[in-house]
TrEMBL record:
GO terms for biological process: negative regulation of DNA-templated transcription. One of its GO terms (molecular function) is DNA binding. The lineage of its organism: Bacteria, Bacillati, Armatimonadota, Armatimonadia, Armatimonadales. InterPro entries: BlaI_family (IPR005650), WH-like_DNA-bd_sf (IPR036388), WH_DNA-bd_sf (IPR036390). Pfam families: Penicillinase_R (PF03965). Keywords: DNA-binding, Transcription, Transcription regulation. It comes from Armatimonas rosea. Gene3D superfamilies: Winged helix-like DNA-binding domain superfamily/Winged helix DNA-binding domain. The keyword Cell wall biogenesis/degradation does not apply. Belongs to the BlaI transcriptional regulatory family. This is Putative transcriptional regulator.
Amino acid sequence: MQSTEKLSRRERQFMDIIWERGQASVAEVLEALPDPPGYNTVRALLGVLERKGHLTHTEEDGRYVYLPVAPAHAVAKTALERVVTTFFGGSIERTVMTLLQSRERHLSDDELTRLSALIAEAKESEKAP
């Protein structure tokens, strides 16, 4: 799987559209962009993403339909692991503490309950042989 670390803002925007839809043609990407460039620019950038290893394509009714090589969740997991390693010395505890202490984000009671259940589950899995 290729890293999304070196994607430009526009490339990331294209990937997000294709991940959300599962697949997309040039026209569909163009339609989904909030500030679309020309058709040829979109086609060229999709080709760049394919050469970088992020996309593949099939041909349907004479048009290319682009598909992500890796699912968004796999790419997100890799990116998150990189952030935890780079900024938090690999410490999940420090990462979670930073997120929980953020004044910009507040967790609902349901989210806190789910997190507590995940922590309890992690404790149990550590005890298992």
